[in-house]
Amino acid sequence: MADSKSEINAKIENFPVNSPSFQTTLISAFEMAMRHHQEQELAALRNTVLNAGLPNAPEADIQRMFLNWLDEFTSWHLMLLRYLQEYNANDIQVIEEGLEVKRPFYNQVLQDLQAKGLIYLKEVYVAKEKNKEYERQFPNPIPLPSTNLMDLGYRDPYKDTNIVVFKRVENIDKFIKEGKYYCDNSSKSAKVDRITDVGKLFLDFIKNPIEKVSFDRSQQ
Q: Of the candidates 82, 108, 113, which has an alpha carbon nearest to the alpha carbon of residue 206?
């Protein structure tokens, strides 16, 4: 964190290092860094300091919200959020390592990101034959709607079956499959934009602006 000011001054002109908003973010990020050790988390904190003083930085209250979320999130939150934006093949490989053990935790991370309004998760309906396995997996099945076909002389097709319909949100397995298809086919149509406007703003706030400035200048 201490090197952020000198790095900013060297590469970005007229950076307001003495602005109250920047100083507040710098102090908050420094305090948070004492509670984190993961490289990805520390890099995100450093980038918030770099972004806080830019002319297009989010207003102070939004910065504070983002910092609070960043303090709460794990490196898995940041990895999955970035993955849903980019569908990077390297991230797919990392996610698949130990997936059998990590699956419920990854799904909880997705729920956390949705609760913060950073991503969209679609609800899907699944029809399964009722058995002990699905009873454990889906404790609250949605009953099928009753019909009046008996009045027309037809037999209710579900009367003697064990079909149960469940509602659930998309999970990590769906996103891995979707990401693989996107990477294998380089098809933009295969990529569904699940990052909300708030999520995009949050991601911009935790990305390194110096690398972006260097890239933009190289394109001129």
A: 82
Contact between 87 and 52 under an 8 Å Cβ cutoff? The reply is no
pLDDT of residue 24: 80
Q: Is the pLDDT of residue 146 over 80?
A: no
Question: With contact defined as beta carbons under 8 Å apart, do 94 and 79 qualify?
Answer: yes
Measure the CA–CA gap between 138 and 132, rounded to whole angstroms: 10
Residues 6+ apart with CB under 8 A from 155: 149
Distance in angstroms (rounded) separating the CA atoms of residues 59 and 53: 10
Confidence of residue 56 (pLDDT cuts 50, 70, 90): confident
Place of tokens 């729920």: 111
Domain boundaries, the chain: 4-120+170-218, 123-169
Report the predicted TM-score, pTM, of the whole model to 2 decimal places.
0.70
**122 Cβ partners below 8 Å, 6+ apart?**
169, 170
- Name residue 31's beta-bridge partners: none
Can you give the three-state secondary structure of 76-138, one letter per residue?
Answer: HHHHHHHHHHHCCHHHHHHHHCCHHHHHHHHHHHHHHHHHCCCECCCEEEEEEECCHHHHHHC
